Amino acid sequence: MRDDPILTAVQNQYGAVARSQLSNDSAAIRAVAQAFGYTAEELATQPAEANMGLSCGNPVALAGLREGEVVVDLGCGGGLDVLLAARSVGPRGRAIGIDMTPDMLDRARAGAAQVGAENVEFHQARIDQLPLADDLVDCVISNCVINLVPDKPAAFREILRVLKPGGRLAISDIALRKPLPKDVAEDVQAYVGCIAGAMRIEEYERLLRDAGFQSVVVQDTGSDLNAYAQAGATVCCSSGACSTSGAEPAGDSSPVHDGLANVLSGLDVNAYAASVRVHGLKPGGPLPVLSAEEALTATPAPAAGGCCGGQACC
Ligand SMILES: C[S@@+](CC[C@H](N)C(=O)[O-])C[C@H]1O[C@@H](n2cnc3c(N)ncnc32)[C@H](O)[C@@H]1O
């Protein structure tokens, strides 16, 4: 798992985030999540540690989950979307979280135990090597993670493999509106912060179609990624805890947030990157109750805000 330097950097830095004190108890972290479409009720009913302000959308709100379905969250982090999905699919359904970072899975498992969720399970694995059987899953969700995967075609092939015929994708992610400046595109902090590994919107659609998905939609949500920077500044600096201040980072700071802030200072991130919602279907199976296009129009756009702005990813 650790032989690829990019994967190692991503795993190390998200491990540090998982070990930090970032949680929904911070007003700034709550503000980021709400800016991306989480309701106050969704956040208040889940463990505070499940939300670290790492999201760039609310994929469960896009997914149209039904009772009894099997749903998989790729790059589940602290487990917020797994727990919300578990609630939607009910006791006859299953919500499975996949993440390669052990400390994230520790957070997620502790949160599931805290709320007594019995229809959830978590596995340590890479997204391009899923430990799941073929044709198992009704819906694959993911939140601000596909941009972090080095081999995106392999990830899309794996997703297609584990979906049942007729199964669907509901992903929130970052994609590029135009190529990044070279120095940002080659910066590892910009990669870990969900910007430099992002694909162009057209490439996202093409790779999904090439993998075999149909009814592919990659829609720019129009969220203001700089709004996230404002929340990130509060997270980092309100307690005088910025690493740039010379003080020791306090509990509400993290290497991902601080590193990205340095890389993106002076960049109009909205000119280059966008929060997107992604839908697609695995061919076969019965006709979907809701087509990908209908699911898009039925889903309200998130309020202002966006992941991965000037201060923090995703
Ligand atoms: C930006 S965080 C998002 C976490 C969560 N989805 C959320 O919205 O709070 C990215 C997560 O994806 C995981 N991750 C990144 N690349 C991965 C890969 N190739 N395979 C599995 N997990 C990965 C990281 O460990 C981290 O927990």
Compact summary:
The protein is an alpha/beta fold and 314 residues long. 39% of the residues lie in helices and 17% in strands.
Return the CATH class: Alpha Beta
What is the mean pLDDT?
85
Number of contiguous helices: 14
Classify the beta-strand content into a percent band.
15-25%
Helicity range: 25-40%
- Name the CATH architecture: 3-Layer(aba) Sandwich
Quickly give the structural class.
alpha/beta
| Tertiary shape | globular
Give the low-confidence spans.
Answer: 234-250, 299-314
Say which CATH homologous superfamily is assigned: Vaccinia Virus protein VP39
The fold-level CATH name is: Rossmann fold
Give the C-alpha Rg: 18 Å
In quaternary terms, these chains amount to single chain
H and E string: HHHHEHEHEEHEHHHEHHHEH
In total, the number of domains comes to 1
Commentary on this structure:
- This protein has 314 residues and is an alpha/beta fold.
- The protein has a single domain (5-298), classed as Vaccinia Virus protein VP39 (Rossmann fold, 3-Layer(aba) Sandwich), CATH 3.40.50.150.
- It has 14 helices and 7 strands.
- The protein has helices spanning 5-19, 27-35, 40-44, 59-63, 80-89, 102-115, 152-162, 182-185, 188-192, 201-211, 225-237, 255-264, 269-272, 292-298; strands at 70-74, 94-99, 120-124, 137-143, 163-176, 214-220, 273-281.
- It has a 7-stranded mixed β-sheet, sandwiched between helices.
- Helix 5 (80-89) links the parallel strand 1 and strand 2 (94-99).
- Helix 7 (152-162) packs across helix 10.
- The longest helix has 15 residues, at 5-19.
- The radius of gyration is 18 Å and the shape is globular.
- Residues 234-250 and 299-314 have low confidence and may be disordered.
- The protein binds S-adenosylmethionine.
- S-adenosylmethionine is lined by residues 10-11, 14, 54-55, 75-78, 80, 99-101, 104, 126-127, 143-145, 148-149, 194, 313-314.
